[in-house]
Model the fold of this input.
Amino acid sequence: MAHFTVIGLGRFGVAASLELIHLGHTVTGIDRNEKIAEKYVSDLTQTVICDATDENALRELNLGNSDAVLVAIGQDMEASLLCTLCLKKLGVNELWVKANTAAHHAIVSKLGVSRIIHPEEEMGIRVAQALHYPMINNYLSLGHDQYIVEVHIHQKHQVFTLGELMHGFDQKISPLLIKRGKENITAFHDNMTLVEKDILLLSGHRQALAALAPRLYPHHL
Ligand code: ATP
Done:
């Protein structure tokens, strides 16, 4: 369990905070707007009404105890930048900042933050990927064009084996796991039959995964 501080409880900040709580972490939510901070009192571990551009106020919050601080102030770029600057001065190392514009990104990147987030763009890319590869439910980028993808075996698939699915891709794609109900299967063999509702985790290069993807269309096999 880790502790996070989220500054700015707009839609993005709240969604991130609630998900962190859901994942079992503790979250301090900060907003300068009293009504907003109060609205999430019972959902978050702690809420604080505070102007996050006020260095002294931030110092009192001991943000060094947080495993990471997320600045989720978007529209008010000046406030976001001032807040980021204060947090750097206070020695917060793991600092993630949401940036709404290219100018915002450019300035924040000069402040040496750990990660700059562009929610709309990142979500747009994910949605496009989902539309392009509807058979892929989720994916994780490992960098250098390597991915882990999650595939749900569809009820309209005819029965087929792992060997048939992977034929020609053995050297390029590795099956990592088949989740079947509560069971996690990690020992594979080619004759293993994939059945409806199996969840398959595969890892490999984007090009190889893209080439394999059509085999997973419900009408293909
Ligand atoms: P979203 O799209 O996530 O709803 P947004 O990008 O429109 O948010 P804002 O509305 O600018 O971002 O800010 C999100 C939250 O940050 C708001 O609840 C606002 O009250 C809070 N906020 C803005 N400036 C400060 C500040 N200086 N200190 C603390 N909170 C702030």
User: Anything to note?
Assistant: DSSP finds eight helices and 13 strands in the chain. The radius of gyration is 22 Å. The mean pLDDT is 89.
